[in-house]
Amino acid sequence: MIRPALYLGALALLILAPFVLYPVFLMKVLCFALFACAFNLILGYGGLLSFGHAAFFGGAAYVCGHALEVWGLPTPVGILLATLAAGVLGVLVGALAIRRQGIYFAMITLALAQMCYFFFITAPFTGGENGLQGVPRGSLFGLVNLQNDLNMYYFVLAIFLIGYFIVARTVHSPFGQVLRAIRDNEPRAVSLGYDVDRYKLLAFVLSAALAGLAGATKTVVFQLASLTDAHWHMSGEVVLMTLLGGLGTIPGPAIGAALIVTLQNKLATGPLSAWVPVVLGVIFVACVIAFRRGVVGEIQAFLRRSF
Amino acid sequence: MFADIFGFPPQVLFGQLLLGLINGAFYAVLSLGLAVIFGLLNIVNFAHGALYMLGAFVAYFLLTYGGIGYWGALILAPIIVGAFGALIERFLLRRLSGVDHLYGLLLTFGLALILEGTFVKFFGASGKPYPTPAGLQGGVNLGFMFLPWYRGWVVVASLVVCLATWLLFERTKIGAYLRAGTENPKLLQAFGVNVPFLTTLAYGFGVGLAAFAGVLAAPITQVGPLMGSNLIIIVFAVVVIGGMGSIVGAVVTGLAMGVIEGLTKVFWPEASATVIFFVMAIVLVLRPAGLFGKTA
Question: Any CB–CB contact under 8 A between A102 and chain B?
Answer without folding.
Answer: yes
